[in-house]
Each structure stands twice: as C-alpha cells, then as structure tokens.
Design a protein that fits this description.
Blueprint: H1 3-9, H2 18-27, E1 39-46, E2 50-57, E3 63-70, E4 75-80
Antiparallel strand pairs: 1-2, 2-3, 3-4
Helix pairs in contact: 1-2
Length: 81
C-alpha cells in the first residue's frame, strides 16, 4: 500500500508513521472467508507503471475501483474507491 493510500484509509492517525498506519489498517481485517476463485478483477487498463481495475466478487454486487502503481518491486494499491 502506498503512503497516500494508508493516509486516506486511516485518516492520518499515528502522526503519519507508515508502519503504525499499516499495522492498524491490517488489524481491521478479519480472516478471509473466501477463496481465490471467488474474486473477480475486471476492466484492467494501464501501462508498466500505473493501472486501474475493478475488483469485486461473484456473490455480491459490491465492486471497488482500484488504482495500482508499480514501485519496481511489485504492484501496490494507490487508491480504492
């Protein structure tokens, strides 16, 4: 997760400390109740450094628009709306 994404998600808590923000953000999750085959990623567009996609599942009508950035070591979520 990028620092900007963490800042938006945890409302600038922990005085901007990205490690504490990430730890707090991860602590809000519950153990997954779905498998790899339940996740749907569609409408992927982008290039080598930035991409957008729509994430959702096969069980609900809930989707999330994702913006991803490639930091050289892999893809990270920059925005989720």
């Amino acid at each position: 997760m990028t620092e900007e994404f963490l800042g938006e998600q945890v409302l600038h808590t922990f005085e901007g400390d990205p490690v504490k923000q990430c730890d707090f953000y991860k602590s809000l999750f519950v153990r997954k109740q779905y498998g790899r085959d339940d996740i749907r990623i569609s409408d992927i567009k982008g290039n080598a450094t930035e991409a957008t996609a729509v994430g959702g599942d096969f069980h609900t009508n809930v989707t999330t628009n994702l913006t991803l950035v490639n930091n050289g070591a892999g893809w990270k979520i920059a925005k989720a709306a």
